[in-house]
Design goal:
five-stranded antiparallel β-sheet, alpha+beta, globular, 28% strand, 3 helices
Length: 134
């Protein structure tokens, strides 16, 4: 069974909580560990949009969640200028730069693209092979 969710979030700090809470729609359909990993990663990506995209109040952040088979795909889109990927270094300032590092560690796949909008996506697969429940 496929499940899609698309939400527009105002570019305010409350967007992080709204994005994280959107993952709860999949409770009972994916293992709790997968849901918790997704909540962490979507929080990081939305926080990055808020921190780096320089969005105006009329420029929403869009999140899309796509559940199919044993895979959850999450995409965060904003009107920011995009960015170049740089691996996190250990001499980076404390407390910063861990979002994409976490995505790279936890996601089964992830990436970015820019087409006038900035897209950052990740996929998580059920770690125990548990299929989605309808």
């Amino acid at each position: 069974m496929t499940k899609n969710v698309v939400m527009q979030l105002d570019p305010t700090p409350r967007a992080v909580k709204r994005a994280r809470d959107a993952m709860d729609r999949f409770r009972g359909r994916l293992p709790d560990r997968t849901i918790e990993d997704a909540r962490l990663l979507i929080s990081e990506l939305v926080a990055n949009s808020l921190r780096h995209a320089s969005l105006r109040p009329d420029q929403p952040i869009e999140i899309s969640l796509h559940l199919d088979g044993r895979r959850l795909r999450v995409e965060v889109v904003d009107e920011g200028p995009g960015f170049e990927l740089h691996p996190r270094t250990f001499d980076a300032p404390p407390g910063t730069g861990w979002g994409l590092f976490l995505v790279a560690q936890l996601a089964s796949a992830w990436g970015t693209r820019s087409d006038g909008m900035t897209h950052v996506w990740f996929e998580l697969e059920s770690p125990d092979g548990t299929a989605i429940r309808p």
